[in-house]
Amino acid sequence: xTVEPLEYYRRFLKENCRPDGRELGExxxxxxxxxxxxxxxxxxxxxxxxxLGNTTVxxxxxxxxxxxAVDSANKxxxxxxxxxxxxxxxxxxxxxxxxxxxxxSQFIADVIENSQMIVKEDLCxxxxxxxxxLYCDIICLDYDGNLLDASVFALLAALKNVQLPLVTIxxxxxLSEVNLKQKNPLIIRKHPVATSFAIFDDTLxxxxxxxxxxxxxTGTVTIVTDEEGRLCSVHKPGxxxxxxxxxxxxxxxxxxxxxxxxxxxxxxIKSITPK
Length: 275
Known about the structure:
Layout: H1 5-14, E1 30-34, E2 46-52, E3 55-66, E4 77-83, H2 99-115, E5 124-126, E6 130-142, H3 147-159, E7 163-169, E8 176-185, E9 193-200, E10 204-207, H4 211-216, E11 219-225, E12 231-235, H5 244-272
Parallel strand pairs: 4-6
Antiparallel strand pairs: 1-2, 2-3, 3-6, 5-6, 7-8, 9-10, 9-11, 11-12
């Protein structure tokens, strides 16, 4: 495994299994904790912790008030940020965001935009005067591959946990008034879920790759779908090309995975909702 890691993996792949005991199409154990179950981000308006095998990601959403942009007077803002601190893996260093963290942040921004999970018009309070800004900080606590799947899952779970207070503008003073006693859940229009694959030897597809599998793979691809089976995004940063048939296979598997993740998140939310 140390001297010839790729050959070591190939021996397992020939038998349609992986060194960790999983089949090629099998995901690692997935868990999610939402909101107060975390007992860790008390300052966030919504939070979630997702574990995908050893990969652990936490997301905190902070809502603030701001004036909308002049060219988007009826829209709020969503600002995602992915952090890969040095504590999550030896490969990352302290300091400004590295290339992988920046790429992940851009990927999350694209998923939000393409899926229309949140319509920015829903974040507007008063046209041209006041809107919500959602700062979505996604921090990796333990990195063992498949960061994108875990990040999208944590973001969705955290956003579903957000409760925004009622805000009105006093007509006489022109100032905003916040009613913390009356809160409403954030409107989530779509529920995007990411499913990632690693490509081995240009032909073989394995789902939910570990960090070691990502390093040995000849390429990766991430498919994002919503609850209607609609394709929201295909993220393929170079590497081996995929045939149309292989890509369709990935999309079919992603739709199945979406149902599993949605079922898990609904179960957790139901368990924490006051009866």
